[in-house]
Specification:
The chain is an all-alpha fold. The chain is built from ten helices and no strands. The chain has one domain.
């Protein structure tokens, strides 16, 4: 299989995997309907926690992590192409943020990005977890945890590539994944700077009609 064919297959598979809207699926199973009508209007873990509680939110985050890891592993273990794996991971994150199955309105890509980092390198994923837990424990802002965590993942992958523990394409994966997640948090970053960002578990009320 040629390199370009592998890359295209990886990107398409990654996007389609990433686009599976576990937040919406679990929200309907939990009886709350469309979680995008509540809280932040997103489909990821944080808004699921605010809208549905821990039990259901854990199902959402497990699904979102799995689809990110699966996208990368398809490229690594089935297509056997580092570029296919790297770009499949990025596509999975973009699929979560802009899901074709849900009107291109998804989450912010954090758990899916973590799953992709896990598929690329467990040390990078471990670094993300450790720093994320520390940030969340100290500050209790899920958004701050997310933007710091994905940056740490990027730095760790850079180090692993420099040390020749990972192939160079994963540097592109880490950079694009970090940018996708950081850009999806621009509003959160502004609220953090203004002191108006809700902490973990807060802000789960129903959104005004027509709000996006």
């Amino acid at each position: 299989m040629s390199g370009w064919v592998s890359i295209v297959l990886g990107v398409v598979a990654g996007y389609l995997f990433g686009g599976v809207p576990f937040g919406l699926i679990v929200g309907r199973l939990a009886g709350v309907g469309d979680v995008r009508h509540m809280g932040s209007g997103k489909t990821g873990f944080t808004n699921s926690l605010r809208s549905m509680g821990w039990k259901w939110a854990l199902l959402v985050v497990a699904g979102d992590i799995t689809k990110g890891a699966a996208a990368v592993l398809i490229g690594r273990m089935i297509l056997h192409d580092p570029w296919a794996a790297a770009l499949a991971g990025v596509a999975a994150v973009l699929g979560h943020i802009f899901p074709v199955y849900a009107g291109f309105r998804g989450g912010r890509g954090v758990a899916t990005a973590f799953g992709a980092f896990l598929g690329v390198s467990w040390p990078a994923a471990l670094a993300v977890v450790l720093f994320s837990v520390v940030v969340l424990a100290i500050f209790r802002y899920a958004s701050l945890m997310s933007v710091v965590g994905v940056f740490i993942g990027f730095v760790t992958v850079v180090a692993l590539v420099v040390l020749e523990r990972l192939d160079a394409p994963y540097l592109v994966f880490a950079l694009l994944t970090m940018l996708a997640v950081e850009l999806s948090h621009v509003g959160n970053i502004r609220r953090l700077l203004a002191g108006t960002e809700p902490k973990l578990g807060q802000g789960g009320g129903r959104r005004p009609t027509g709000a996006h």
